[in-house]
């Protein structure tokens, strides 16, 4: 199956400009071309774009993504370094999750505290609004 750049953008959730940018900085190999010379993205290209999107979502820097993409072109010989990049990124994601969990815990504490204030001081049940006649 092949997809035009517009269809690849729609399916990947990336913009056409981002697809061209990824190609320009060598995150994405140049896609095949159709008989009219237009880019023709494959299912493999879309799978790779999905993986790149996940890496960006984790906060992986473009520089590291470029290194990973370059190593990928070397096949199995680069598996150890690619794994190391992913292990490091996983550590970074785990740290960020822990940081966010700490933030969530503080928000929960404050929300519970205000609910207690409403019950004790204001005589209001949390989540219930007073109805005036």
Automatic annotation (TrEMBL):
<feature type="domain" description="HTH merR-type">
    <location>
        <begin position="1"/>
        <end position="71"/>
    </location>
</feature>
<dbReference type="Pfam" id="PF13411">
    <property type="entry name" value="MerR_1"/>
</dbReference>
<keyword id="KW-0238">DNA-binding</keyword>
<dbReference type="InterPro" id="IPR009061">
    <property type="entry name" value="DNA-bd_dom_put_sf"/>
</dbReference>
<dbReference type="InterPro" id="IPR000551">
    <property type="entry name" value="MerR-type_HTH_dom"/>
</dbReference>
<dbReference type="InterPro" id="IPR047057">
    <property type="entry name" value="MerR_fam"/>
</dbReference>
<protein>
    <submittedName>
        <fullName>DNA-binding transcriptional regulator, MerR family</fullName>
    </submittedName>
</protein>
<dbReference type="GO" id="GO:0003700">
    <property type="term" value="F:DNA-binding transcription factor activity"/>
</dbReference>
<dbReference type="GO" id="GO:0003677">
    <property type="term" value="F:DNA binding"/>
</dbReference>
């Amino acid at each position: 199956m092949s997809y035009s750049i517009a269809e690849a953008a729609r399916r990947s959730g990336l913009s056409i400009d981002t697809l061209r940018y990824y190609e320009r900085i060598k995150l994405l190999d140049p896609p095949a071309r159709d008989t009219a010379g237009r880019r023709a993205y494959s299912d493999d290209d879309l799978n790779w774009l999905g993986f790149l999107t996940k890496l960006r979502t984790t906060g992986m820097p473009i520089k590291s993504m470029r290194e990973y993409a370059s190593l990928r072109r070397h096949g199995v010989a680069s598996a150890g370094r690619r794994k190391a990049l992913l292990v490091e990124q996983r550590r970074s994601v785990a740290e960020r999750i822990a940081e966010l969990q700490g933030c969530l815990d503080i928000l929960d504490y404050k929300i519970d505290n205000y609910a207690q204030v409403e019950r004790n001081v204001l005589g209001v049940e949390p989540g219930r609004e007073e109805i005036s006649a």
